[in-house]
Specification:
The complex is a heterodimer of chains A (250) and B (269).
Chain A (H helix, E strand, L loop, with lengths): L1 E11 L5 E11 L4 E4 L6 H8 L7 E6 L2 E2 L5 H10 E4 L13 H11 L6 H11 L16 H13 L5 E5 L7 H14 L4 E6 L2 H7 L2 E6 L2 E7 H6 L4 H9 L8
Parallel strand pairs in A: 3-8, 3-9, 6-7, 7-8
Antiparallel strand pairs in A: 1-2, 1-4, 4-5, 9-10
Helix pairs in contact in A: 3-4, 3-5, 4-5
Chain B lengths: L2 E11 L4 E11 L3 E5 L6 H9 L7 E8 L2 E2 L5 H4 L2 H4 L1 E4 L3 H4 L6 H15 L6 H14 L5 H6 L7 H14 L4 E5 L7 H18 L2 E6 L2 H7 L2 E6 L2 E7 H6 L4 H17 L4
Parallel strand pairs in B: 3-8, 3-9, 6-7, 7-8
Antiparallel strand pairs in B: 1-2, 1-4, 4-5, 9-10
The chains are: A alpha/beta (250), B alpha/beta (269).
Chain lengths: 250, 269
């Protein structure tokens, strides 16, 4: 089933030049999609379109086959409930004045989801391997990796179908990064992820399908396996060749 | 090879706690050494200690000898000539390392002029301008004349980092310290900058202390690497051995994590 789709989407900010051009992509339930691109590729704009935070200049963004329509509030509430996001910087994406409990409970409250909030928060904390007493504390008491777990707990608390993860491990140390990737992998059994990153290796670890974005256009998309084995576009080949590798074992 | 930098039992602490506890290492002239560590490991503090740039609130003991001169305990007046002639640095974020109100060419020119003064010469404006252009060409900046007139915000991140490297080269230092110089850059740009750093360091016979959390990046530029954790030096060795047969469990974990990323890219057709 197609969760989110962009068809023939182009986008410009105001009267500026095209930031995205002729974008066709579909996020299928159960198959993580990676979007790889460097600075200026249009990743961030794509993210805003996928989250319904910007409207396409032309073409259509649809959710479960229906066009996103900001005026249809009931539909948008369903969309928000189904599509959540985790952002890059766990230091700026959590409100420092709120306790972790309220941060995680926020989607339940703002989307008016009728459920046992305390139980849902407790479950979300368990899902991200944080102790239950984390709920009473404030974000500054946690490390970067733990904060990213809090952000993930907030994203999953309402049981969304899709999580859009924007450079979620870029700000983290290598060992922390590996643990967060393991967490996202285990959550992939329950929900679908769109992973937006400059790091093709990260995307390869998490996603079955891959989209390569260069200067606002999709230059290649398909199964991650196939693209890595036989990159067709010169830019994809350049990205792969530029990614530093470990030396051969001696 | 002669020893360019020798660090012995370096300890850095604040009133509250130790930050770097008793590390020792050395770098030979022309040697390229990687310093690996995660955040809070003390790697950048170690670099600042070598430059004599630690804040006064930190207590430093042990000894650092750079190009035959003691750094710890030296007066700032004695350190100034060392910075530039013996050591220069390139940092992570070129946008903050460069003066936003000064054209790239003028920033490089200032270094050229100061370095010439130290050598006892006073080149004219035309001579300085031509040296600046040569340096911008050396770091493979396209249209060096245009970039010399540009302000930092008018050029890309990779170009700014090339500008910062040009300034370091203008010092003609014996040791170049590069602290996460490519972390803020795109991978394709990173690949170019790493190649550039390696080439210039090799050509000029400079020593390199390359600080990074990224193992494959370190492997690209360094011959030997040191691993720091919680302020201590836990392992060191030639890059091939260190990454091939790490002996400390922490290094093993880092190597395994880095290899997992590599493996993800190796789908056989």
């Amino acid at each position: 089933m197609t969760l989110l789709a962009l068809s023939g989407v182009s986008f410009s900010y105001g009267r500026g030049s095209r930031v995205l051009q002729d974008i066709d992509l579909a996020v299928e339930a159960g198959s993580n999609l990676g979007i790889v691109g460097e600075s200026g590729s249009g990743k961030t704009t794509m993210l805003k379109l996928l989250l319904g935070l910007e409207r396409a200049s032309s073409g259509a963004v649809s959710f479960r086959g229906e066009r996103l329509d900001a005026a249809n509030r009931g539909f948008m509430r369903g969309f928000r409930r189904s599509v959540q996001a985790v952002f890059q910087d766990p230091y700026s994406s959590l409100d420092p004045r709120q306790r972790v409990f309220d941060i995680i409970a926020e989607p339940l409250r703002s989307l008016k989801i009728e459920t046992d909030i305390a139980a849902a928060v407790e479950q979300a904390l368990r899902d991200v391997d944080l102790p239950a007493d984390a709920a009473r504390r404030y974000p500054h008491e946690f490390s970067g990796g733990q904060r990213q777990r809090i952000a993930i707990a907030r994203a999953i608390v309402a049981n969304p179908d899709l999580i859009i993860a924007d450079e979620v491990v870029s700000a983290l140390d290598l060992t922390t990064r590996t643990r967060i990737i393991d967490l996202l992998r285990s959550l992939s059994a329950r929900m679908t992820f769109v992973v937006v990153s400059h790091d093709i290796a990260l995307v390869a670890l998490l996603c079955e399908r891959l989209v390569v974005l260069e200067k606002g256009r999709i230059v290649e998309q398909g199964a991650t396996r196939d693209i890595l084995a036989r990159p067709a576009h010169p830019y994809t080949r350049q990205l792969l060749a530029s990614t530093p590798r470990m030396p051969e074992r001696v | 090879m002669s020893t360019l930098l020798s660090v012995e039992d370096l300890q850095i602490r604040t009133a509250a706690r130790p930050l770097v506890s008793g590390i020792s290492f050395s770098i030979a002239a022309g040697e390229r050494v990687g310093l690996i560590g995660e955040s809070g490991s003390g790697k950048s503090l170690t670099a600042l200690a070598v430059l004599g740039l630690l804040p006064d609130t930190m207590r430093v003991t042990g000894s650092i000898t750079l190009d035959g001169h003691p750094v710890i305990g030296a007066r700032d007046r004695d350190l100034v000539p060392l910075r530039g002639r013996s050591v220069a640095a390139v940092f992570q974020e070129p946008m903050t390392a460069l003066d936003p109100l000064m054209r790239i060419g003028d920033q490089v020119a200032e270094v050229v002029r100061r370095r010439a003064l130290r050598d006892g010469t006073k080149p004219g404006r035309a001579e300085i301008a031509s040296r600046v252009l040569a340096l911008l060409e050396r770091v493979a900046l396209p249209e060096p004349a245009r970039i010399a007139r540009a302000f930092p915000h008018e050029i890309s991140g990779g170009q700014r980092q090339r500008g910062a490297i040009a300034m370091a080269l203008a010092c003609r230092p014996k040791l170049l310290i590069a602290d996460e110089p490519t972390t803020a850059l795109d991978v394709t740009t990173q690949a170019e900058i790493l190649k550039l750093l390696e080439t210039v360091v090799r050509d000029e016979g400079m020593g390199l202390l390359f600080i990074s959390h990224d193992l494959p990046v370190v492997a690209t530029v360094a011959e030997r690497a040191l691993v720091m954790r919680h302020g201590a030096l836990i392992e060191e060795g030639p890059v091939g051995t260190l990454f091939g047969r790490p002996s400390h469990p922490y290094t093993e974990g880092l190597v395994a994590a880095a290899r997992a990323f590599d493996a993800a890219l190796e789908f056989a057709p």
